[in-house]
From TrEMBL:
Name assigned to this protein: F-box protein 31
Matching PROSITE patterns: FBOX
Name of the encoding gene: FBXO31
Pfam name, any one: F-box-like
Pathway it works in: Protein modification; protein ubiquitination
Region (Disordered): 13-81, 367-388, 401-421
Length: 520
């Protein structure tokens, strides 16, 4: 009790602090924890305090048991906080007001390490931020065709909503950019404050509404903080530099200038008053060609956009999380048939657009015939390496052999392994194909027939056109749009996203259907 009294600021707190400094001088650096010990403490506290997260009433019993268990290992009469077992300190620190924890972290390295225990902060969020704990995770803002990607995370005493932005076009390999849109601050026990982070004048008053399930809205109460002294022209120049990394004078393409100006006018009218809908990352299945997830891709004059790659039996699908006036966010941008591999010719013939078109259109015509006459057996290119059908047919064997090429421990060879080479094969773009990236991988694992979605302005006259899906490695793939004579390169997002994965495939597929209905 004396130790707890000193911790809470009553009793002999000064003497306790002096005794700590005296012990540290006598023991050298014994009071400091190295990284290995810090990791051990976090692991122990998570296992001991796991039940305490579910019920506040369980804390006294857990703390009592922890104290009893440590009686044989720790000092019989602890003289300072540092003499107590870590699991007991976690229980004590969890009962303090959240605003006191930063000051407590300044006492010494050991206490600071213990305060980094996730159990403490999860409990604080559950108790203090109870109305907002359900907004953690990934969300898509309703910004017309442009969409977006918001990640809501716990960061110390805040819950922060980070908007993820693609790198500047065309640097698809660069990391994602982040911009804070709002934060929820724990000012004192049982009270929180919502702040808007939009604009360049610092945090200001905001509001969050969480009425519907898997949906919430933000509102800025001081939109004057979003304005700049130079008016709309200064706001546009600042936005353009942040969004594209250049000035309008650097963009010579007139159509691209119109698209950029249109996006600024459309997105700036919201003033951070947005509605968000929950989205999930797809769970990985054993039959997936590669790890599903988020990728950055090049889309011509529209710049870089974020897509979500997922697998559905014999199909791979890429759904837009950010979009444009032609094909908006939420739409299925790529649909790849994993039962239809395409064998590339030698490098000399790969440079010919006519040769590539002949190969892909041959598979496309066969796919169209099967749609019209589903009882007719496939012929031609597909019959050489894969047969359209369920996952139990030859198509599954092609998929398995494609995965073999990326595995360190090869699986038994399949009868169709000739269609999916176990080694990387040379790759080059045909002459006349436009690309935003002159530097692209020159070897690939395997190629498949697929279709890409194109449309007129305002998502008018949408249609799926044939193309070639090219798998380079676990983190890169490309798509050649035959009709547009252009190439899109995609690179995986490497950011760690918590609270993001769908609980099961059924929930994920239901989310995809809802996404498409939002912008249809």
């Amino acid at each position: 009790m004396a130790v707890c009294a000193r911790l809470c600021g009553v009793g002999q707190s000064r003497r306790c602090r002096r005794r700590q400094r005296h012990n540290q001088q006598d023991q050298g650096s014994d009071s400091d924890m190295d990284e290995e010990e810090g990791e051990r403490i976090v692991g122990e506290t998570q296992s001991v305090t796991g039940g305490a997260e579910n019920s506040a009433a369980a804390r006294p019993s857990v703390a009592h048991e922890a104290a009893a268990d440590s009686a044989s290992t720790g000092p019989p009469n602890p003289q300072s906080l540092l003499d107590l077992p870590p699991e007991l300190l976690v229980e004590v620190f969890s009962s303090l007001p959240g605003t006191e924890l930063p000051n407590l972290a300044l006492v010494c390295k050991k206490i600071r390490q213990i305060l980094n225990t996730e159990t403490i902060w999860r409990r604080r969020c559950t108790e203090v931020l109870h109305p907002y704990r359900h907004i953690l995770g990934l969300w898509q803002p309703d910004i017309g065709p442009y969409g977006g990607l918001l990640n809501v995370v716990v960061d110390g005493l805040f819950i922060i909503g980070w908007m993820y932005l693609p790198p500047h076009d065309p640097r698809v390999e660069d990391p994602m950019r982040r911009r804070p849109l709002f934060r929820i601050h724990m000012w004192e026990s049982n009270k929180v404050a919502v702040e808007c982070m939009y604009g360049h004048k610092g945090p200001h008053k905001g509001d969050i509404q969480t009425g519907k399930k898997d949906e919430f809205s933000t509102k800025c109460n001081q939109t004057d903080h979003h304005r700049m002294p130079g008016g709309r022209q200064e706001e546009f120049r600042t936005w353009l530099e942040e969004e594209w990394g250049r000035t309008l004078e650097d963009i010579f393409h007139e159509h691209m200038q119109e698209l950029i100006l249109m996006k600024f006018i459309y997105t700036s009218q919201y003033d951070n008053c947005l509605t968000y809908r929950r989205i999930y990352l797809p769970p990985r299945m054993p039959s997936d060609l590669l790890q599903p997830g988020l990728f950055k891709g090049t889309y011509g004059s529209h710049g870089l956009e974020i897509i979500m790659l997922s697998f559905h039996g014999p199909c791979a699908r890429a759904t837009k999380l950010t979009g444009d006036p032609n094909v908006p966010a939420g739409q299925l941008t790529l649909d790849v048939d994993l039962n239809r591999p395409v064998c590339l010719p030698d490098l000399e013939h790969q440079r010919s657009m006519e040769e590539l078109s002949r190969l892909v259109l041959g598979v496309h015509e066969e796919a169209q015939r099967e749609v019209q006459n589903p009882d007719v057996a496939p012929q031609g290119a597909a019959s050489e390496g894969a047969v359209a059908g369920g996952a139990g047919g030859a198509g599954a064997a092609v998929l398995e052999s494609a995965m073999e090429a990326q595995s360190e421990s090869p699986q038994p060879a399949s009868s169709s392994s000739s269609s999916a080479p176990s080694e990387a094969q040379p790759f080059v773009l045909p002459l006349g194909v436009m690309t935003r990236n002159e530097v692209y991988p020159r070897t690939c694992k395997i190629c498949f027939y697929g279709t890409g979605l194109i449309a007129g302005h305002g998502f008018t006259s949408p249609e799926r056109t044939p193309g070639l899906f090219v798998l380079f490695d676990e983190d890169h793939f490309g798509f050649i749009w035959l009709e547009l004579k252009s190439f899109s390169l995609y690179s995986r997002l490497t950011d760690r996203l918590a609270h993001a994965y769908a609980p099961d495939m059924e929930r994920f597929e239901a989310m995809l259907r809802n996404m498409q209905s939002w912008t249809s």
